[in-house]
Amino acid sequence: MDLSVINPLLFIAGFLVAATPLIFAAMGELVVEKSGVLNLGVEGMMITGAICGFAVAVETGSPLLGFVAAAIGGALLSLLFAFLTQITLANQVASGLALTLFGLGISALLGQSYVGVKPPRLGDINFGPLTDIPVIGPILFTHDIILYLGIALVAATWAVLKFTRAGLILRAVGESHDAAHALGYKVVRIRTMAIMFGGACAGIGGAYISLIRVPQWTEGMTAGVGWIALALVVFASWKPWRLLLGAYLFGGITQLQLNLQGAGVAIPVEYLAMSPYVITIVVLVILSRDKSAAPASLGRNFHASS
Amino acid sequence: MTDTKPFLALSGLTKAYPGVVANSDVSLSIAPGEVHALLGENGAGKSTLVKMIYGLVKPDSGQMQMNGAPFAPSEPRAARAAGVGMVFQHFSLFDALSVAENIALGMENAPKMGALSQQIRDVSDIYGLPLSPDRVVGDLSAGERQRVEIIRCLLQEPKLLIMDEPTSVLTPQEVEILFKTLRKLSAEGTAILYISHKLEEIRSLCDSATILRLGKVVGECTPAETSARDMAEMMVGTVLQTPTRAGKTPGDVVLDLKNLSAKSPSAFGMPLRDISVQVRRGEILGIGGVAGNGQDELLAALSGETLSAQGMVSFQGRDVGLLGPTPRRSMGILTAPEERLGHAAAPDMSLTENAMLTGAEREGLDKGGMLNWPAARRFAEKIIADFDVRTPGPGNAARSLSGGNLQKFVIGREVLQRPDLLVVNQPTWGVDASAAASIRQALLDLAENGTALIVISQDLDELMEISDRFAALNEGRLSEPRSAQGLTVDEIGLMMGGAHGMEVAHV
User: Fold this and answer.
1) Number of domains in chain A
2) What's the 3-state SS for A220-287?
């Protein structure tokens, strides 16, 4: 075993990348859950975004167009969930699980001709001299634009939920849809928009895996990140900054266990591979003591009767 | 006051839902500054009518006019813009949000939070409704929550204020202060549409009244000149019977609570603090108090849903604090919780199944794990027959019954199991007057036969009518029980905790 092969700078830069898909998917789901909807289809929307983004990036040669397509793909798939749960009032848990299975299936179908293809590369942003700062430069200023967008998304979601009227209305709908309806807010419309936002974010998260992190297309390549995103939202007590922390923890341990595998540590690979999931959940369970943070109407269907 | 031009005039409003006509050809008019009462039993169509004025429901036919111009709000926002404010019966508040956030949600052009907080302080000071804008609504008492709703309306400077059953959650002192606020508003020219079925309140507050029965206007009157009994009979359409009781001497102690303390199972609940009281055979202990002061928690501690430490709850000399609901039931402690659908009865199960759920132990409906359905069905049929439950048969789902009928079923189910101690919470909530009278009579008959009863209710008139002794819950503490005879409203109000820091409007 030789731990000196792990380069700390590359390690930190790597875990920022590993955490980004999770940040997008979980922030989207946080907004959805704040509006009172539980969408378990994150994994399905991510993988759909992954293939939509991959396909469009390959066909057009533009990774950024790929990310736009991924957002649209994820949002379209989530619209199916919105129709089932908001219009036909189907059970949210069952609809979400069905969405995941459907997403896995349709992405495999769409991706048949893309296996083994190499996608165009999204370049890093040129920060000029900033990149040359020792230690900080290679860690913070050698990334693509989407990674920075992910961090901006956390800040923006936090600010919108806390300081704006739109955020207040969203929280109100998630807290008590009956009371919000009585005050004249359009519960179904607001929730549908939140669901589509969640779908678009999950799609971008998926495309980040297929276009940047891996970068290639294989079936089922999201490998459970969508489920971790769901757990992260709960364990982060629906708080954006805590969610960012959890995502970095998960990304960090993922990266660490890969490096440890590379360094030939005498622990079976299976234990290393499961460690990010176990440690993230254990830490967040300890952090999330206040259970009252859940939106009170979470998972309950709304119908404007009487 | 009624001879001025009406502010709001309704003519021929009709609204039908599948299977029921909620409002049929309803007309009324309200002048500026008039306090107009809308009277009627549950299901008479009061709520539907005000929802039409507030834009939540569209009428099928008929017109509304405001200041002589047609008025047809398509949504609450339009109604609010036209000067209509509404304080809801079931509070339309968000527990996890702060007072200021709740108020901002109900406003069209909410100012910045800082400015809004200042406005809230100003208005609450003018009208004597103290309220801190930063507190989380989930921590407020029922009276304070209502202040949030009222201030939310007042900030919009409404010309018509609709109040839907505003006093059901207030102590008598709080009611008095609310009335002063309303009289001040009325003097400033605000019209008030006041919905209630508490007749004495209407007599002291309102200038005129419209009485609804089964969706139709059945009469109008000037409340100050009409007796409460006449108004009640117009509401019900029949002559009311008052429950009767015989004098009696209480027997042995059945239930003995010693310093009962228990945490609340829910996040926004009220813990019980140091409750000590004895209940004897044949006695009815009435427990009053504003909702949310420990009523649900007390019932749960007696039924066995929450366990308590040794020595706190003893029943017929035995310590039962650590026993769960089933052993307590078989010993003869029966309970009927407030929430009919979901707590007292399983909504989607049939009446037979619901009879089985609490009756299995004492009625012998369960032999070695096998259920005796024919016996459960006979038991359900007996409840339906004895308590005049209006339903096609015991195979119907609990959800399909109206609130009053389900309440009769739930109470009847416990009464027929011959309890030694029966605890009921809000036995006549949302039940029409004649059904309420029959439920009260059943409780009195039960006490006559030697059962000890604890009746928890927010209806003080009900408690005064049936209890032998009266005590009040306030912030999880039980006041010293006093003989119900001769208690004045003022004394009861003080037992309930007085005015909770409210002050009289600065007129």
Assistant:
1) 1
2) CCCCCHHHHHHHHHHHCCCCHHHHHHHHHHHHHHHHHHHHHHHHCCCCCHHHHHHHHHHHHHHHHHHH
